[in-house]
Amino acid sequence: MTDTALFSAPWDQKLTLLTVAGSTLLLLGATLAVWVSLTMVPPGPGRLLILAGGVLSLGAFVFGALLAPRGYTVAGDRLTIDRLLRPVEIPLAAIRSVELLSSDRLAGSSRTLGSGGLFGYYGRFRNQALGSYRMYATRGDGYVLVRAAQSFVLTPDSPERFIEAIERRRGPSGGS
Fold it and tell me: Crossing angle, helix 45-67 and helix 13-39, to 10 degrees?
């Protein structure tokens, strides 16, 4: 099959507010660090430390934007989580199941490595109900659970159509 199904990753109001606030703080911190270190701190270790803090703030902003989910593509034999840096590809043949996921099954989740609201909710998470999973979400509803070698929690713009697109390409045998 050569048809492609594209799904956006729309932001909800909470993510928009978290991203605007977080971005403002990170960019303001980076700017302030550079300004203070160059105008108020004499050359030496103190200046380097302040500049390093500014670089880290700017790096967090840039990497947050580069790693955030931008959408999802089902094409050929792959599901792709679209990101600016290193999209995540999941072979359709490796998907064991795909289903709607209620938000209560994410209760008690802890983030082990990732973002909890700067450009998205993404990275590695863990909870009692799902165990370890990777999330690439941009809102607090419309979750889809994709089980493959790892479990993935996604938030495509149309969860039902997304599930149908994957199931249609996996075929009647479920990709086995």
Answer: 160
pLDDT of 38 above 90:
no
**Facing residues of 88 across strands?**
81
What does residue 172 show for φ and ψ, rounded to 5 degrees?
Answer: -65, -25
- Where does residue 152 rank: exposed (0-12), middle (13-18), buried (19+ CB within 10 A)? buried
Structure tokens at 11: 């932001």
Q: How many CB atoms lie within 10 A of CB 68?
A: 23
Q: Are 146 and 166 in contact (CB under 8 A)?
A: yes
Distance CA 157, CA 89 (A): 19
What is the predicted pLDDT for the residue at 174?
Answer: 56
Q: What is the pLDDT averaged over residues 56-61?
A: 96
- CA dist 176 and 167 (Å) reads 12
On whether the CB atoms of residues 171 and 162 are closer than 8 A, the answer is no
Contact assessment for residue 155 and residue 138, using Cβ atoms and an 8 Å cutoff: yes
Cα 159 → chain centroid: 16
Report the pLDDT value the prediction gives residue 2, as an integer from 0 to 100: 58
What pLDDT is attached to residue 172?
Answer: 61
Residue 1 confidence (pLDDT) above 80: no
Percent share of the chain, pLDDT over 70: 96
